[in-house]
Amino acid sequence: MAARVIDGKAIAQKILDEVAAGVKSLSPKPCLAIVLVGNNPASQSYVKKKGEMCEKVGIVSRNVFLPENAAQAEIEKQVEMLNSDPRVHAILVQLPLPPHVNEPDVLERVNAKKDVDGFSFVNSGKLFAGVPTIAPCTPRGIIHMLKESGVRIAGKHAVVIGRSNIVGKPLAMLLLQENATVTICHSCTKNLAEITRTADILVAAAGKPKLVKAEMVKEGAAVIDVGTTRGADGKLVGDVDFEGASMKASLISPVPGGVGPLTVAMLMKNTLECYENCTGSRRLTGIRRGSRAVMIGNREGARGKISSAAYAEDDEIGKKK
Ligand code: NAP
Fold this sequence. Notes:
Blueprint: E1 4-5, H1 8-24, E2 31-37, H2 41-57, E3 60-66, H3 72-84, E4 90-93, H4 103-109, H5 121-129, H6 137-148, E5 157-161, H7 168-177, E6 181-185, H8 192-196, E7 201-204, E8 222-225, E9 229-230, E10 236-237, H9 242-245, E11 251-252, H10 259-279
Parallel strand pairs: 1-11, 2-3, 2-4, 5-6, 5-7, 7-8, 8-11
Antiparallel strand pairs: 9-10
The structure holds NADP nicotinamide-adenine-dinucleotide phosphate.
């Protein structure tokens, strides 16, 4: 029987509605500042989309544009200014930064309370230590997607293909927090198919189109496809052979319309959590601070990687149904 297909847009819309409802009564409104360095057209488009999404949910967005040749010190100074500006509650540095910039050093400058992407070492350390913190948007979205789809994570064997700081590693930590038994695979993993065939939950985040074939999927597994590669025709292609895998899986996320919309929705939710951090307000996001069950984590921005909050699958999200 063909797998149930996850409607990422619908799940994301529920989050956005909750965020919009939470923001409504707030004064001042939460403010997300986005730092964009250079003229990368894809980054410019992502920043524009994030700003539009902020507007839809009532979050104020502020863009800081710096030239392609901006010096490291100048970028860090801008981040410091946003850190100390009480009108700014959340800061996102759009990745990738130009090649001359030391990306980790810039990301490390972001105040952990305003670190909407969870890139700082403080927040990634908290994730590793099992302390509640701001989580990377994509892994957080995947956990939410699994739960919303009725998947019980505890006790399951979760296999994550990919070990980036943006997706694979923080996702593995979050799955562990949910009491899954976690295996992380990467480009040096031997016998990948043998391992993936043992997965109750299989997450593909390799950026290799159609890497996961039907024969690599366990009967009845939940398959989450994070991959987004732009094909020659301009269309997004996932890491999973959707047609084949959906004949084996019981649940599958599509590309587009799966993880991408959740990533953007989680960016909005994380902005609200940064607002809580900065203002001391609570219970806007329903996060129980002391609870391991709502553990949320972090990612570092590895040089040259695109922010997981930067994927452009969200075109339809936020539009009134
Ligand atoms: P990345 O930094 O390039 O990491 C890819 C990971 O996959 C690496 O750990 C790599 O192993 C591993 N890998 C590559 N080829 C493999 C293979 N044949 N078998 C097993 N593992 C393999 O990418 P990323 O930033 O994590 O992103 C992964 C994909 O997700 C990309 O397509 C990206 O566009 C997409 N993405 C989508 C969203 C969204 O919101 N939809 C968000 C984030 C990312 P090594 O470490 O050994 O090199």
